[in-house]
Amino acid sequence: MGQKVLITGGTGLVGKRLTEMLLKKGYEVAYLSRKKENIPSVKVYEWNIDKGYIEDGAVENTDYLIHLAGAGVAEGRWTEERKKIIISSRVDSINLIAKKIKEKNIKLQSFISASGSSYYGEDTGDKQHTEESPAGNDFLSHVTVVWEKAADSITKLGVRTAILRTGIVLSTEGGAIPKMALPAKFGFGAPLGSGKQWISWIHLDDLCNMYINAMTNNSWHGPYNAVASGPVTNEELTRQICKTLGRPQWMPNVPSFALRLVFGEMANVVLGSNFVINKRVTAETDFKYQFTDLEKALEDVFNK
């Protein structure tokens, strides 16, 4: 049996593909889940964050821990109650894990936590951000700041910790791309808002390989911008999606005010501009991207 990787949020977009890659490499994969499920080749342990419960055997003999769990930021209006859930699902879960690791004296080789490129702000215009840039001061920035601060509780236990501030993930299995592609498939593809807002993206396979690299390579520590090297505008992304699908882009831009009427504050997710640079990944690691060109990345995504 290979080394054990325990994943929270394993049934999500990134978790599923990451699991496939880890199993192929010979790792033993286990999940922490809110409910028992039968998943081929994966041991599923139950946990209840509100009750502070983790099933016995979950964290024991774990070599690596990958934290992907967190309520979706684009799955409902940002009511005050929803905001609390978005934060607590990320922060309280890490705090519970840290508590159990300390209680059971688990010697992890590494802890890798998801975060978001929104760390720098929901809408930062044309300003370019590296890992050294300061955090923003809006809701999504606050989410990522407290998320990363919670990860420090595991770092303080002597565990090497890396944080991946992720941009838009290119995949047809979930995330933003299927939502953008749906109208395009019917010939209604259109940029959102001005269309000039910057989008920092990464192919799903590159992101999962980055998790594995960060997990096993001792040189990875602290925050990294998990994005490809070439941010594009919303307009360009929409154009490339339409081109890849062989559909015209003839609809006018969807007005910002219309999106805000429908989604409220949550519209910031699609209207915000984030030009994020993967400085630490390219300068400090030996990680090699498989997809650096948006057109080729989308062709791979839609042809799978």
UniProtKB/TrEMBL annotation:
Domain NAD-dependent epimerase/dehydratase stretches: 5-218
The organism's place on the tree of life at top rank: Bacteria
Gene3D superfamilies in the cross-refs: NAD(P)-binding Rossmann-like Domain (3.40.50.720)
Pfam family, one: Epimerase
InterPro entries recorded: DUF1731, Epimerase_deHydtase, NAD(P)-bd_dom_sf, SDR39U1
The DUF1731 domain, residue ranges: 254-301
Similarity field: Belongs to the NAD(P)-dependent epimerase/dehydratase family. SDR39U1 subfamily.
Designated name of the protein: TIGR01777 family protein
Native source species: Dyadobacter psychrotolerans
